[in-house]
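Risk register update: the risk of archive-format incompatibility is retired. Evidence:
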Amino acid sequence: IFESLRRRDNGKAQEEKTRLVNERERELYEKQQRRLGELDRQIDKNRTLPCTISSVRVLGASNTRPTFLKRILEPILSANQDRPYTLSEAIRETQFAVDKLHRLDIFHQPISVNIDRPDSTDPSTTPADIDVYISAREKGRIAFKTGTEAGNAEGSAYTNLFLRNIFGGAESLNLNASLGTRTRSAYQANFESPILGNPDFRGDVGGLASSTQKPWASHEEVLKGGWAKLRWLGRGGKHELGYTGSWRQVTGLAEKASPTVRGDAGDSIKSSIAYSVTNDQRDFPLLPQSGYFTKSTLELAGWGPLQGDVAFGKAELEGQGAVPIPVPGVKGNSGVALTTSLRAGLMYPLPLGFDSKPQASRINDRFQLGGPTDVRGFRLGGLGPREGPDAVGGDVYAAGSANLLFPLPRLGLEKPFRIQAFVNGGRLLALKRSDDEKEMTAKSVQTNVLSTISELGNGLPTMAAGIGLVYGHPVARFELNFSLPLVIRKGEDARKGLQFGLGISML
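Archived output:
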């Protein structure tokens, strides 16, 4: 009996304690809301008052160079303006500068801002002066992690060392080593830095050594190379311009490797410049419900002063759109969406260096098509030209897909699981050459390219349809599909039945 009474008393005491805590939290919240309301009223009342930003101080940035911060913050000082600010303009310009600090990725969020009056006893100040104090907390300078990751049609285990804000100007050094299912080993190092303190304009230099198995073409490719790139955010999306030099080896040939693969075996050097523009307006890139995505890439290799021993021009276009589908009787978002995707590419033979004779393409530069990340219902490299057991790739391709996504019953719209019904297809063609053509010329290449492009529309594309389960993980998209090939050309490698796919860019 005493024990029961004691527990009842303890329960009442706990309820009283909880009630007092809730009341205290409610009072604090109401007090904060009153302060914020008063602050908003004061700002709104004085928003047009003239003021001058006399100083900007950053607190908590001990590892960041003052000269680097000065480049970002000095432009907002009133001494560098043609006219005085209004209070609302001063707050807006300060927020723009703080947003730049956020995008540098060297400070924890949030970065707080305080505005104060300078000391009235200072004779150099005026009544309109304000001082801005920015309180920031720097992120750790060293990060080490190991784990697994998923790429397009392969998985890997990796070790990564990331050094942040190395020289106090938001520079970073990323060292990565990985072992994978297709890429047997890969070692990469790249150094990146904002240019002129602009977080939206960055330079990147790096190097790579990798060994990748390509069983669909009976060989292994060993690559060693480096790059230098510029990335910036501009009109039309994210832009990238870069130079890449790489030494490639086609090696480890299988016993039944085709003559084409054997002919391209050995070493080659590619020296190229590339430019790409990416515009991603999807709400969730790996499982979009609305929005669109476009990407275009141009690459020029071996022509003129670029040298190397391969020469070509390459263009690729990629686009995707997603629209929500309303369902009768369901209010708001139904979770049903239709996505359509299109990809196309062209490889144009060019003369090597300052020569006049165009060069034929090599197997490690040509396009491959087919597999769980693009044309489902076919094996990797299952579409296009084949020679014996090998997919030797093509110079022109086009592929498209339409996917209808439904939420799983009982899981709800918020869960990243969907059922999909899809139909996809494409064509991959080698550059057509006439029977009497002994060697390529600039005129014959132009004729052959136009003839090959027109062949894309000759007849139905290779096609497959199916249904499957999709999981949109933040790292990659996972799919388990049952596919049924509908149109197959002679020699193409179809796959009827279950097919598992994972990747970060799915057709």
